[in-house]
Amino acid sequence: MTGTMLRRLRTRQVWLEISLLLVLLLGGCAARGTGPQASSSKLDGAKYVPTLFFHGYGSSANAEMPMIRAAQRAGVTQTVVHATVAKDGHVSWRGRFKAGDEHPIVAVQFTANREGDYQVTAGWAKNVITGLQQTYHITRFNMVGHSMGNMAMVFYLLKNARNTHLPQLQRQVDIAGHFNGILGINDRPNRMTLTAAGKPTKLDRDYQQLLALRQRYPRQARVLNIYGDLNNGTHSDGSATRRRNRCATWWLDGHGRIRNDASWGQTPSTASCTTTRRSTAC
After folding, report:
1. If you average pLDDT over residues 228-237, what whole number do you get?
2. Which side of the chain, N or C, has fewer Cβ within a 10 Å radius?
3. Per-residue DSSP letter, 164
4. What tens digit of pLDDT does each residue of 11-53 get?
């Protein structure tokens, strides 16, 4: 077997395992612009818990489709609504919630997919959430983010987590989150360490803002934090180091302590994952 074929098989294995974790996590959960179209049947919004997928930098919602299709095959939902957010924040919708399918997926697409101002992308995320609230009267939701998508999510929470008039976050999945620096931009391999309590020894500007989440992060929310390792000595996935990814656990736990409850096995490109009270560190 060639090296290329082996890498493809490993990549496919990793995506399958990530998809399985998402199904286990999300399947357990029983705006400017016009709102999404509602089904002709009247829906009880309190019963619906949509899961929003946010793509990475320079990417698109298509990159999240392998995970979304896995959730469909597992029977989590058969409803996928597409929300496309223009640069000015206007949201265009395709699809609608369906009666009886109470865990729909919303695939979010940022048209300006290289926007680096996280306050802006957080505002776009809010437009999607409030659009769903206005149309379906949802009170709860989940989020899945990949790379930059994680930053849109956490900066949304930074500003809105305490707003009781908005839907409340239940579950969050962070994949390859660069919460405290990006290799080649403001970080280099093996530069940062973590204290025994999990606090990073170096904090970039964005992360310093996110420290406020230690007090604001929703108490009811559960988080799965997934990250990879190229096993090439950088202890990173090529963009963010494992320690930078693990920085999320410092502000996810209100006391800076992590309790390990369960674990998943090691794969060639993802570290083993251990669940905590409100987070999972890999």
Report:
1. 55
2. N
3. T
4. 444 454 555 555 555 554 444 455 676 554 578 888 999 999 9
Block residue for tokens 């309590």: 197
By CB atoms closer than 10 A (0-12, 13-18, 19+), residue 249 is buried
Rounded Cα distance between 106 and 132, Å, is: 10
Burial of 6 (0-12, 13-18, 19+ CB in 10 A): exposed
Asked whether the beta carbons of 110 and 85 are under 8 A apart, the reply is yes
Which tokens is 68 given?
């979304």
Answer yes or no: are the C-beta atoms of 141 and 49 closer than 8 Å. Answer: yes
pTM (predicted TM-score) = 0.78
CATH code, 128: 3.40.50.1820
pLDDT 10s digits, 135-165: 999 999 999 999 899 999 999 999 999 999 9
- The residue range of the domain holding 106 is 3-281
pLDDT band at residue 80, thresholds of 50, 70 and 90? very high
Partner residues linked to 30 by β-bridges: none
Which among 207, 189, 191, 188 has a CA at the least distance from the CA of 251? 207
Structure tokens at 17: 């395992």
262 three-class SS:
strand
Ramachandran sector of residue 238 (left: φ over 0; alpha: ψ -120 to 50; beta: rest): left
Q: How many domains does the chain have?
A: 1
Measured in degrees and rounded to the nearest 5, phi and psi for residue 19 equal: -60, -40
Taken in order 18, 120, 93, 221, the sign of the CA dihedral is positive
Cα separation, 136 vs 89, in Å, equals 20
* Mean pLDDT confidence for 1-20: 48
AA letter at 208: Q
